[in-house]
Design goal:
single chain, mainly beta, three-stranded antiparallel beta sheet
Length: about 100
């Protein structure tokens, strides 16, 4: 169960979309989930609220795609709760997502 007694997504599952592959999942403070993976061969992230809804405070639609042509192999929560992802294609790629300070 998510917060407030709501089930996580529908029937306990959430489907991110047809073109993404989740390679790493991390739990942030307050129960928010970050799914990291590949979307069209680029770093892609989606953040979910504890009840399974996309977190639109993360971006306008709850998802972010970086123009880094690599596949995510791992993700972690770094200093100041920033999301750090690493991946590879032919070379190592690392990115830290710092968010929008106005939110």
């Amino acid at each position: 169960m998510g917060t407030g007694g709501s089930p996580f997504g529908e029937a306990g599952e959430v489907v991110a979309g047809p073109s993404g592959v989740i390679c790493s999942l991390v739990i942030r403070p307050r129960g928010r989930l970050v799914a990291a993976g590949a979307g069209d061969g680029r770093f892609a992230l989606a953040r979910y609220k504890p009840d399974g809804r996309l977190d639109r405070s993360f971006s306008s639609n709850g998802r972010v795609r970086a123009d880094i042509r690599a596949y995510v192999t791992s993700a972690a929560i770094g200093a100041r709760n920033r999301i750090v992802v690493a991946g590879d294609r032919s070379k190592l790629a690392i990115a830290r997502f710092i968010g929008d300070r106005r939110r």
